[in-house]
Amino acid sequence: MTINCIIGFYNMQRNNIINAAIPDRPFLNDSDDARNTPAEPYRDLLIDAGAEVKVHDPHVLQYPDVEISQDLDAVLDGVDAVVIFAGHRQYYSLEPKVLQELSGQAHPVIVDGRNVVEPDAFIDAGFVYKGIGRGDKNGHEIF
Fold it and tell me: Which of the ends of the chain has fewer CB neighbours closer than 10 A, N or C?
């Protein structure tokens, strides 16, 4: 699954150092309702694997035992991977070049769990792209 792809790729590339951004908590678009968020178990798996995980959400201000930032640029700064779990309007305008510059990586990973980004734009910019329900875009060569 996707979690294995990210962990496997970055264990090889960064000597077991994984920095991941999870830009959202709620499953509902543009909502502060974070009950039963799919981001929580994913975050826990990344942390258990040794990742440093940063969480962004423009609507959720607090969540038990999770530090949440409303500053998306700060969350994306220096990350190896971005995982999108909510379809907030703000995430539809993510630009590959800006995200790549913020990450500082030539080939960062983006996992689009809500189909909010344009796959070809991210793949063409050098991202390792994985999207839910986008099998035709997931087969590209990993750099």
Answer: N
Q: Closest by alpha carbon to 35, among 26, 43, 44?
A: 26
pTM for this model (two decimals): 0.77
Residue 67 burial (CB count, 10 A): 9
Residue 30: CATH number of its domain: 3.40.50.720
Residue 36 belongs to some domain of the structure: yes
CA distance 105 to 88: 24
Q: Is residue 35 part of a domain?
A: yes
* C-alpha–C-alpha distance, residues 5 and 55, integer Å: 20
In-domain check, residue 64: no
- What are 22-59's pLDDT values in tens digits? 554 445 565 555 656 777 788 888 888 888 888 888 87
Task: Report the domain count for the chain.
Answer: 1
Find out whether 79 and 19 touch, Cβ atoms under 8 Å: yes
